[in-house]
Write a structure and sequence with these properties.
- The complex is a heterodimer of chains A (241) and B (257).
- Chain A has one domain: 2-Layer Sandwich (Ribosomal Protein S5, domain 2), CATH 3.30.230.70.
- In chain A, strand 8 and strand 9 (192-195) form a beta hairpin.
- Chain A has helices at 87-100, 127-141, 168-171, 203-235, and strands at 19-23, 31-37, 40-51, 64-71, 112-122, 150-158, 161-164, 178-186, 192-195, 198-199.
- With 241 residues, chain A is α+β, with helices and mostly antiparallel strands.
- In chain B, the strands form 3 sheets. In chain B, strands 1, 2, 3, 4, 5 and 6 form a 6-stranded mixed sheet that branches. Chain B has a 4-stranded antiparallel sheet with strand order 10-9-11-12, sandwiched between helices.
- In chain B, helix 2 crosses helix 3.
- Chain B is elongated and about 65 Å long.
- The termini of chain B are far apart.
- Classes of the chains: A alpha+beta (241), B alpha+beta (257).
- Chains A and B meet through strand 3 and strand 5 of A and strand 3 and strand 6 of B.
Chain lengths: 241, 257
């Protein structure tokens, strides 16, 4: 069997796909963002902190972060995605919450909920990571105090190579073993807030990929920061709350 | 009482032919149409009416035809009022508003007969194309009705059939064949507030409307679907004025597609 010598889309093994980031794309929301990486695009809208309903969700000691991940019905490479929650989207919503909570001070918002809605118009692998990256941007745009920033990317292994930001054709590679590892990281402290994996990999390679994730999330973070700066240059610093 | 006060305030402005954002009664906000916003859809479009934005995508599937129309394909229109689009929308199954939106958009297209359903037949009685048009509201700053109908027709116009390989759809291969549209039906909703008729309302105006009439028309002015909404009554004079305004606005919108 031939080794994986050249990436399917021609990138270097450590190269991210082209990125696009914008904030303030959903004017009704308290904060919003669009993040696109290759063929995967995510919108995120933040509402809140607002009083949480149903009431049993209210916690007098702390606020609640509630993330909802949705693929738009026409966003998948195959058949139409049926609207409404499913096992996959519920799990992704949950790990997205866990990926973002470490940088928030939810104790500052007792009895409240911060809703983050993530919705993807097109997907080509790495959709939970694009969603987390967009969500972090939207939280910043909403003015929610954050102790650190979060950026996310999928890394992995395709046959004998370690790769950054897998596309769908790499996830589905049949010429050798594949590992797909979504990682979310805090920007300054480089702590891992999301770690999942499908496939097979050695401990040595896993640790190498965590190291590579630091560089990759740095590049994503640069994009996030320039999107925030771009909005403030465009609209000035509005204090309309 | 507040609603009455707000309406009085709006009417005062309308008597001077100015709206909250400075537009005239018969003026749309700036319209922006983008195509191919999702590479995984067979056709897609984004529509902005000012701050209001909706996305629409077409997915083709192969399905069994209905038994009463064995040689005709199927068109399905669905509207998702995502809670990301407005603090008033909630997660959960489609509510009455999203169902009304989907049905009004659906009828505007279906009743205009611009889609040849026989052309969607693959094997009579066995296999036909099912055309799924999904519309997702991204930001609701008013007039989702017209935004959704524009988005649907733009996405349908943009759609190309996928190839069929060994009886199954190969979504990676788009053919060069689109849906042959014989006309471009367009829906315009005219709102009656007091004695005024306005188009393309902002959310603030929409909640003060007394009655609305959505009019879908074809190029030659033929009316192909109607929907009256809200509680106030309309008379013949209203209907004539509202249809006239909708028809002339539809003509303007058609030039953008």
């Amino acid at each position: 069997m031939m080794a994986y010598t050249k990436r399917i889309d021609g990138r270097d093994f450590k190269e991210l796909r082209p990125m696009e980031a914008k904030v303030g794309v959903i004017p009704r929301a308290d904060g919003s963002a669009y993040f696109k990486i290759g063929g995967t695009a995510a919108y995120a809208a933040v509402y809140g902190p607002r009083t949480s309903f149903p009431r049993f969700l209210q916690n007098p000691k702390s606020g609640v972060l509630r993330c909802t991940y949705t693929m738009m019905p026409f966003s998948g490479a195959g058949d139409r995605v049926r609207p409404g929650p499913n096992r996959r989207s519920k799990e992704i919503s949950m790990v997205t919450e866990k990926a973002l909570i470490p940088v928030l001070d939810l104790e500052d918002f007792p009895n409240s909920v911060i809703d983050v809605f993530i919705s993807l118009p097109e997907t080509d692998a790495g959709s939970r990571c694009a969603g987390i990256t967009a969500a972090a941007l939207a939280l910043a745009d909403a003015g929610i105090p954050m102790k650190d920033f979060v950026s996310a990317v999928a890394l992995g292994r395709v046959d004998d190579k370690l790769v950054v930001d897998l596309c769908y054709d790499e996830e589905a590679y049949e010429g050798g073993p594949v590992a797909d590892i979504p990682i979310a990281m805090t920007q300054r402290s480089k702590e891992i807030t999301l770690l999942q994996m499908d496939g097979e990999i050695s401990k040595k390679d896993l640790l190498k990929l965590v190291e590579l994730a630091k560089d990759a999330t740095d590049k994503i973070h640069e994009k996030q920061v320039s999107a925030l700066k771009e909005k403030f240059l465009r609209e000035g610093f509005k204090n309309d709350n | 009482m507040t609603i009455e006060n707000e309406r009085a305030h709006l009417l005062k402005a309308l008597r001077k032919n100015v709206r909250y954002d400075g537009r005239k009664t018969d003026e749309y906000r700036p319209i922006e149409i983008l195509y191919n916003i999702s590479k995984n859809a067979e056709g897609s479009a984004s529509i902005k009416l000012g701050d209001t934005q909706v996305l629409a995508g077409v997915k083709f599937e192969i399905d069994k035809p209905f038994s009463d129309t064995p040689d005709e394909g199927i068109l399905m229109v669905n509207v998702e009022l995502s809670p990301m689009a407005s603090p008033e929308f909630e997660s959960g199954p489609p509510d009455n508003w999203s169902i009304e939106l989907a049905r009004v958009v659906d009828r505007g297209i279906r009743e205009s007969k611009v889609v040849d359903f026989k052309d969607l037949c693959i094997t009579p009685g066995e296999k036909v194309w099912m055309v799924n048009v999904d519309i997702v509201a991204l930001n609701d700053s008013g007039n989702l009705l017209d935004a959704c109908s524009l988005a649907a027709i733009a996405a349908i116009k943009n759609a190309l059939f996928p190839e069929i390989v060994d009886g199954n759809i190969d979504y990676h291969k788009k053919s060069k064949k689109g849906l042959k549209l014989k006309d471009i039906p367009l829906s315009v909703t005219v709102h009656k507030v007091g004695e005024f008729y306005i188009v393309d309302p902002l959310s603030e105006e929409e909640k003060l409307t007394n009655a609305r009439l959505t009019v879908a028309t074809k190029k030659d002015g033929t009316i192909c679907a109607l929907q009256k909404g809200e509680c106030a009554t309309l008379n013949e004079k209203d209907i004539e004025a509202m249809v006239d305004l909708a028809t002339s606005k539809a003509e303007e919108l058609r030039k953008l597609l």
